[in-house]
Amino acid sequence: MSQEFNITVLPGDGIGPEVIREAVKILKIVESKKNLKLNLTEAPVGGAGYEASGHPLPEDTLKSAKSADAVLLGAVGGPKWETIDFSLRPERALLGLRSNLGLFANLRPAKIFAPLAAASTLKPDVVEGLDIMVVRELTGGIYFGEPRGVETLADGSRKGINTLVYTESEIERIARVAFDVAGKRDKKVCSVDKANVLECTGLWREVVTQVHKDYKDISLSHMYVDNCAMQLVRNPKQFDVIVTTNMFGDILSDQASMLTGSIGMLPSASLGGDKAAMYEPIHGSAPDIAGKDIANPLATILSVGMMFKYSLNLEAINTVLERVVDDVLADGYRTGDILSKGGKEVGCTAMGDRVAEELEKQL
Ligand code: IPM
Ligand code: MG
Fold first, then answer.
1. Residue of 13, 76, 91, 92 with the most ligand 1 atoms within 8 Å of its CB, for mutation
2. Quick check: 181 and 107 in contact, CB under 8 A?
3. Structural domain of residue 4, as residue ranges?
4. Which candidate, 126, 293, 342, 254, places its Cα nearest to that of 242?
5. Is the dihedral of CA 94, 96, 97, 99 positive or negative?
């Protein structure tokens, strides 16, 4: 009997639909080669959701995501929606999906594909062999803390407020994810905070240290976020797993992505909920290059790989997919963002086709 899975596909805005189209090609190949039944339900989200229904996260979209086995998302946002009320901005859809699905653990692997060592802005010997996992807390911290907003004071001037909040249980559960992930890797966790200034992350450091007592085989270090930003470009290979807050993780994962050549290479998995997990490239909607067929679809394709590994229990497919991407890069195919001397420049569709053809052979 073939295995059957329900996948909600949310292309979103900007380059989202283009990269998702290539990722869906990959899903179809896996479906037919591995005799699976993948029921794909496409729904609008972000700016597209707003246009379709007046809200960035339409009710039916959320319902579909909640009942799926996995959610695949492209990207949200664009200049068209930058002036509408904050509560209706495309980005709210992403935050709404994460919190409604309970996806508190965001895994962002910054792993360099060997053929891309020359594409990084850092020297090849600094990044060769790099393999970092950023574990970002995703449903708490300053992104969700109350009070928040912009208030008008008595003198008519305004005050903007956001609040950094973490409870012990929120810190404990993300720390456990990080230690568990490290257990299957190089057994090293670096917890990143700003404990010298922010009480909330002082508590973070305390709780992580406490939880670590249950993980005797894992080594734990702590680092301030400013130092971590510096160490990531000085000597990134010192890191195995980095665990950090929502906002620090947002920033450090963008930085880590560039070590691998391009933000267009980094997939992510958002886990921790009761049912569906969500998979998305970490890059945004890149409105400046949308519709030009030049976006890099590899981050989204690799997100599909993570979906097979973490949600559908088919880790072997992820292994093959990563190898296929490596092979396509070794053959010299490059989208513009990872182009270096001697590379064969291809667009989004052609890159997807190259991966699809190779996967067809190797699966
Ligand atoms: C990310 C993005 C989002 C975030 C934005 C689009 C809301 O930057 O997934 O990293 O800040 O989490
Ligand atoms: Mg980000």
1. 91
2. yes
3. 1-104+272-363
4. 254
5. positive
Q: Which tokens sit at 260?
A: 């691998």
pTM: 0.95
CA separation, residue 176 to residues 191, 205, 252, 325 (Å): 12, 13, 20, 31
User: Is the beta carbon of 282 within 6 A of some atom in ligand 1?
Assistant: yes
Which ligand 1 atom lies nearest to the CA of residue 76? 6
Ligand 1 pocket: which of 94, 97, 285 to mutate (most atoms <8 Å of CB)? 94
Among all ligands shown, which has an atom nearest to the Cα of 268?
Answer: 1
Domain boundary among 212, 240, 261: 261
Do 13 and 42 lie in one domain? The reply is yes
For the Cβ of 250 lying below 6 angstroms from any atom of ligand 1, the answer is: yes
pLDDT, tens digit only, all 363 positions of the chain: 689 999 999 999 999 999 999 999 999 999 999 999 999 999 999 999 999 999 999 999 999 999 999 999 999 999 999 999 999 999 999 999 999 999 999 999 999 999 998 888 899 999 999 999 999 999 999 999 999 999 999 999 999 999 999 999 999 999 999 999 999 999 999 999 999 999 999 999 999 999 999 999 999 999 999 999 999 999 999 999 999 999 999 999 999 999 998 899 999 999 998 889 999 999 999 999 999 999 999 999 999 999 999 999 999 999 999 999 999 999 999 999 999 888 999 999 999 999 999 999 999
Q: Report the CATH number at residue 166.
A: 3.40.718.10
